[in-house]
Design brief:
By secondary structure, this protein is of the alpha+beta class. Helix content is about 45%, strand content about 15%.
């Protein structure tokens, strides 16, 4: 492991320990009010910090918020698992396991470093149209019907249409997942569409039909 990667992982662990101490120090009957504070702060975030410590802290807070929220919706969840009074079976710490998460982050970091992986934050069209090397693309955009309600950053109609156009013109192999609705089927009438059943863990195990879309061979 490189010295830089090791220092980043150390920062992750220290930041996670600090946040966990805040959660652990609060009685689970009245979980920390930091949950809405973190949600409000992240909802107003539109840029990625340049300084590493701030970047690590922002990433950690986003991870924590998703692990502690209903259906992993983060700022869109409205509150922590179990509610502010922790009256339901699933409590705020049901999926917040700092030691396991830190270990997993370390494992993934080492794996990415060993593969010389590059993580970017770009507009999807720029990535899809990058033909500098062959690639297999998996695209999971905000869904058509509920995307804007579930995610902090959703898609407009123009975004959906722009994605379809970029994929149609791409030389890469790709696969796309979407919710099953007439608008998506119309937009991708030129591609191969297959239906699959998916069980949503955050909706009492309800089964829904989703679409897998890929180019005709």
């Amino acid at each position: 492991m490189t010295a830089t990667l090791a220092s980043h992982l150390y920062g992750w662990r220290r930041a996670m320990q600090r946040l966990n101490s805040v959660i652990s120090s609060s009685s689970l009957s009245r979980p920390s009010r930091r949950f809405p504070n973190i949600g409000q702060r992240l909802s107003g975030t539109i840029s990625v910090p340049d300084e590493m410590a701030a970047l690590v802290q922002q990433a950690l807070e986003k991870l924590a918020l998703h692990r502690m929220s209903y259906s992993s919706l983060g700022p869109k969840a409205g509150g922590p698992r179990g509610g502010y009074e922790q009256t339901t079976h699933a409590k705020i710490d049901a999926r917040w396991k700092p030691d396991k998460i830190a270990q997993r982050v370390g494992e993934i970091s080492e794996l990415l470093a060993s593969r010389n992986a590059r993580i970017t934050s770009k507009d999807f069209e720029e990535v899809i149209r990058d033909a500098s090397s062959p690639a297999i693309l998996y695209c999971d955009p905000p869904y058509w019907q509920q995307g804007n309600a579930l995610y902090q950053w959703g898609f407009t109609y123009d975004d959906h249409a722009r994605l379809a156009r970029a994929l149609r013109e791409s030389s890469h192999q790709w696969v796309l997942s979407y919710d099953d609705c007439p608008e998506v089927r119309d937009l991708y009438g030129w591609a191969h569409i297959t239906s699959i059943s998916v069980r949503y863990s955050g909706t009492n195990g309800r089964w829904e039909t989703e679409l897998l879309i890929f180019p005709h061979q």
